[in-house]
Amino acid sequence: MHEENNSLTVVEQLQQMEEKVAEQFQGVAIISEVTMDEGDYDSVLELVKHEIDHNAHQTAVDAVWQAAPKTMLLFTVTTAVNEYDANFWATVSDKLALAEDTMWRDAYMNALTAEGFATFKVQGVQQYVTAILGHTTVPRAQVKTFITRILQPAIDNGYSAEDIQTMMQHDAKNMPVKSHGLIRALKDYVKQSDMIVTDVLARALAVWKTQNRPFAENFAGVLPQHMLEGFDEVVIKVPRKVQEIIKMAVERPTLRYSVTDGAVYLQLPTQTFRRQVEEVIWTIESTYGEQHVSATRFAFENGETDFAVEKNAGRIAVAPKSTYNVTITVDGVVQGQWFLATEEFMVFDATTAAQIQAQEFSAKQFIAVFAKKHQKFTAIDGIDVMTTALSGEFAGYTAADVHVNKAFAYNTGDKRIVVYATARQFLLKGQKQQAVVASVPVYNGEFSIVVGKKTMATLSQAKQWTLTLTHLQSEEAVVVNLHEATFVENELGHNELTFPESFTTFMTEKPGHYTLKMASTFGKDAAVTFVYVPSTVVSIEQQDNVVTFETELGYKLVPTNVRTYVQSAVKNTVTLTEAFQKLNVTLTMPRTKEKLHFTYYPQQAAVTVVEGVTASPIGLVTNANDFNLEKAAVVIDIDHVHGLTQVDTVEVVVYETLQDGAVNEVAVTVHATHPEVLPLVQFADATNTQNVRALHIRIDALQLNAPLVTVHPAYTIEDVTAAANTVTVALSENVHGEFAHLFNAVTATHVATQAVAGQTVTFADVAEGHYIVALQATTEFPTALTAQTGFVAVDTDDTFAQALLLNNPLSDEGEWEEDALRSLIAQIHNAKDVYVPLLVEDSLTCSDFGMINIETLQEIIAEQSAEARKVSLIIAGFQDWDNVSVERALGADYILVSNKTVYAPKKLATYANYKGRQFVWSYNYSPQQEQVFKGFSLTHEVLNTLAAQQSPQAVKQVAAFVQRFMQPLEQMVTTYGNLPMVEAFVETVLSRKGEPFTFTTGLVAFWNSVLFFHEHDLSAEDVEFVREATPTLYALATELFMHDIVFWHAKLDAFDEAQKEHEVRRKQFENPSFGWKK
User: Fold this and answer.
1) CB atoms near residue 897 (< 10 Å)
2) Spatial separation of the C-alpha atoms in residues 635 and 376, rounded to whole Å
């Protein structure tokens, strides 16, 4: 070119080239997006060298940069693309034969600023390195290492661009993404907190993941051409062993800010698997060592298995300025590894409280947690801030509830955070699902995107401008070229585009979570995440305190924090029993089984009492042992989407009336758009308080004025015993000034009162019978069994059920006159929380009572309300009723699902080993295939009853049973290891050793079996020990509703007697109720 234009000066020839290069620079953010071919590069090199050879070096450099700044920038970056090394400015200066390295470097930096290009400013001397690499991206020679060390491991582990940058910034150790093999400058480039760099990483991940070759043709304009060409040259071979490992979808851990605790913590999420999994272990490596956390396994009836860390609800305490390498291992295989870090300035999502890693985002409100040196943040123009001083590990830090009025930027020293008050680059519009509040918007149709005029003018000049819709679970995507789309001007003067048909069709086939990403110029990429649920799928209706959820067939919509009555596979109802509660609801999609979690607010807001990780509804009644006012708080969570949208704040008042009638109160103004907390610590040290602390809450905006929490004194009844007509009550501590009352449990009458003065209370001359002791102020019969009540039998072998239902003086051997029977049922119903748990311990007696009185009971139950029926059917042993009798009792409320349905309620033994989470699932997720009753399910009522039986006393009995019997019984396995039966079953017996109670129970069962065949081989002491353990387990099994063991007791020790008794009962009750079970 120089020879062809020898009539022109160097400057004139460069100016000609500048015109062509300037056209290529339209809509370009980084210089390597433009490609300089080899011929042009050689021509520029020759021209510049010629100018330098014939002039003073500085004069020549100034001349060429002034004549063709864009050409010089492109030439410099092209040199870096192909020849970058650790001493780049010396390399390019040598190439041009310049005397000083700084001449070309300084000219490059000046031109970047003058031409409006990013300078990637960082502290110190690295500014020159990052300025050249920021526009080079990954040098050609480093592309393969970049792929093998960063991109591929990131894709294998599901990392985002922000994840990569966080790991690089903190020099994360033992992580899949490695910096080894990358030149130092490239490491510095990758970890920059700059949106352009983040976009490069994000696009590189997306492109490489597709493996849609040739990359250079299929993704032209998405990444610099030299990177795409480098991608085409690299082939990753996956080792065979790695291919054999099934990668499972797992939920990632997150750092979260707790508004109730005022602290940052690491949240280990619940993992749900649809295939057989036995063990999940979390490993957390941090500055403070290594910690292993086992998740508890919950198997559900639909084949899914949950693994949840139950201790502290999966929250792991973290410290400031610390790093956390978190690994999840599923059945011995590492299925996920993440790197998290606490910093001196952190931001958290206002809705989910999860850490935000991006340095640019849009938000109306968010939470900032920062060290003392960042106090200046609160004075930034454009934000409103409510601050809270943190304590504990984060003492000296401040949490700020930030409400954004206009866009702002804040430099933390390590990164520059930019927050926009409105949507960035584009706005997603759509018809939102009514009454649903979720961590991301939930839409059901009528989609469009809106782009402002200024943004439109910028993005439309970009070389590539695309809109990508990605279904997150399947990772399938649809791409639209916006250069070919038709925007129309809307009523506000903005540019609006109705969703393309390809998007609509795609979402209709796959409802669920989506990401919509607009890609244009580097640094301008933007994305939103949302959920699409077709408008016909979900229906939520509320009438008074009854909420009905209904879906299309195939979907499943179920509340998870309350009991719901399942009317059919697509419909269930919740009867609200608590004021200002919220319903956490899960929608399960058909086919994919993807789950959407959202919240429904029946009364516009939810008000809960929180202590530690336990949240309770307002009106909580507790005691000082279980509730610490210093750590307690009230959480006000308002439906900011559909609720109080006309006001920004509400006033909350918590108050307590003192002994002298004065009122101690705390008032605070909270934002209606964000869950906020009112700590109760001020009440912890209050003086002149009542013996029973009664705190109330008032929120005038919600028309709420109600009891918040009632805290009884700390003392409890530890044990109640009877001997020689004397009842002795043992208390947890010395108590003075209170009263203990003794009640006849059969007649529900008050018998005696004793003043409490010490740690024991004695009632003398107590007649034969069954009694309840209660620590309370009144002589009214208790309404529930609590830690301040106890039950005892005095000088009688009858169970309570036998005494009340069969041997009652008002009955004739268990047969009741109608009026007396009605009075009995009314008595039980009035104190159902006392009677039902005591009666169902003896389910056989309940069945006998039901059989004897079945005709009269049918008439009584037919007249009762739905609530009363639940009690009557349970205490009448409905499990042993035939379907004809049930239908007579329930009338029109009895429905069989189909003509082929057989009435066969699940036996209690089905639920013997269920944990709380499994009870809730079984209760809420499946309509009973046996029968469905309008308004309630009998099986659900049994589940409800059983789930409430985990009393502190039973837990203590379990611990004592394990401590007494496990080790000696296990030692016997070694002692008698040569016995054939022991040798044959030792592996099975020892397999449950990690579950002490289950293991001890199995040992008792096993040694009873051994006694049948090998009693003569066992020592007399060991035989006696087994015979001591067995009745202890029987008694415990009855209390814990372990009905399989109760059944085993009858079959093992009294097989003949049990058979005879069964036959007698069958003949006694000659009706279908026993005949159908033959």
Assistant:
1) 14
2) 28
